[in-house]
Fold this protein.
Amino acid sequence: MGKRKNQRKNKMMLDSDDDSSSVSSSSTMQSDQFSVSGADELEFKKDSLLDEAVDALYEKRGSTREKALASIIEAFNSDLQHQFVEKKFATLLHQCLNSIKKGSSKEIYLASHVIGLLALTVGPGDNAQEILKESIMPILQASKSGSESSKIASLLECLGIITFVGGIDPEETEKSMQIMWQSVHPKLGSNVVTAKPSAVVITAAVSAWSFLLTTMDGWRLSPKLWQESIAYLSTLLDKDDRSVRIAAGEALAVIFEMGSLEKFVAEAKGSNNGSISEGNKSKEGFLQIQGLRGKILNQVRDLSVEAGGKGSAKKDLNNQRNLFKDVLEFLEDGYCPETSMKIGGDSLQTSTWSQLIQLNFLRHFLGGGFTKHMQENEFFLDVFGFTPKRRNLLGSERISNGQKRMLKSPNSVISKARTQILNKQRMLSKDRNFGHFAVNVGEYDA
């Protein structure tokens, strides 16, 4: 295709740059002395506060449990709680599941976020698989009860995280994606009526679905079902809510990046060798797919230059324009957007839609805790192939002796997680532009 004439490189800067980069070498000796005498004591105090928070999850008063969950989220965002998780993994998981089953909407919102943080902390392995296995049914049931948008959105985001970390078999990922899909696009009988999902729920479901879609490869799906999902995403591009349009645009970008629509066009063309009726059907399917692609291209082009409506925030409008300019350029010329994000003193770069969607989803989920995980969580380092400065790893005075032992041990959760994610990435290292995705979007049997 030749060189890109005006290659646009998006640059993102996190506000939470590492302040320690400005510390002089003379003060480093003092901090080293402090770390020897006080770091373990400080870690003990933090563990005690976390123990108290977990104990509070047994309290009858809902407001007490909500406060405890909020403090646990804060602790997991501020530091990687490996030692605490080793001791209290099962207790924390099951108390959070109890909150999802019996708590208020706010408590469910908080508990589902804690479960997601727990999965990201333990990384791939037996514990992450247990989280997914134990959580999927309570999440499904809670998402169907009530209509509180923030609660349902949090449950769907949690499901995306725990499946991303703990989903080993393709069928597990498929089930989670079915739940997400049906939360916004259910297949109903003629006598069944449900409330339309809110924009918040649609955005969360489509974003989580796209997040898991980035992990899929080598599956088979009938063109009819695949066409159905693309057609639905196309309708979302016409919705009034900008966040819905952006989520749908990202999902379609991943789909096109994986080459799935082109694969089905080729299948429709190649199936004309059968009977006349089969040939007519395949020709009809081919024309429908081509028409759908043309429609999406026009929608993307319009959204990339939208003038903005009444009361629309300028930042949101710019985000939409920039996204759909990238999508349009990708559909027309095949170029993926390149991004560079500042993390501490290092730059994290992406060059595919799949990487960008994964990065955005994890950054959104973790909020202020993203930088800490990106610098010290081995699972994140392996997913993005990111190598931060040495001071952020074993050489950092901020990491406790217990954490260092965990990182060094070949039998540790971290080492096992590293091995599993590397094996998974090797399986997915084929040329994604010629891969294909398949997921049965039929109804998930609860």
Summary: The CA atoms of residues 121 and 377 lie 7 Å apart. The longest strand covers residues 338-343. The beta strands are 9-13, 338-343, 346-350.
